[in-house]
Write a structure and sequence with these properties.
This protein has about 100 residues and is mainly alpha-helical. It has a domain at about 1-55. The chain has helices at about 1-25, 30-35, 40-45, 50-55, and strands at about 70-75, 80-85. A two-stranded antiparallel ribbon has the order 1-2. Helix 1 packs across helix 4 (about 50-55). The radius of gyration is 21 Å and the shape is elongated.
Length: about 100
């Protein structure tokens, strides 16, 4: 019985360590996270609490109802800059981050 408890404790400690390492990887910039994740076997994602860790790690400080953080973007032709704050109070703005290709 004592040996079984030691094994169980070791398994729990290993699981906690792996969860901590995964969480630490999720806090890294996207490129660093991708380099780490390419070494993680797919079955591990079924065992580790990936989604809940991801939701905590990538939550960020912005909440519903907050003013969007200001940023500037170059135009597609690289001839001008667009500043988000230039539209504040004028009309609704929808920000879509992703790719349509």
């Amino acid at each position: 019985m004592r040996k079984l408890l030691k094994i169980l404790g070791a398994v729990i400690a290993l699981y906690a360590l792996l969860c901590g390492l995964l969480f630490a990887a999720m806090l890294q910039p996207p490129d660093d996270f991708a380099r780490t994740m390419k070494h993680v076997p797919w079955p591990a994602l079924g065992v580790l609490p990936f989604r809940s860790l991801w939701n905590v790690a990538r939550k960020g400080p912005v909440r519903v109802g907050d003013v969007a953080p200001d940023f500037s973007l170059g135009s597609p032709d690289h001839q001008s800059q667009f500043q988000l704050s230039s539209l504040r109070g004028q009309k609704p703005v929808v920000l879509v981050f992703g790719s349509y290709t």
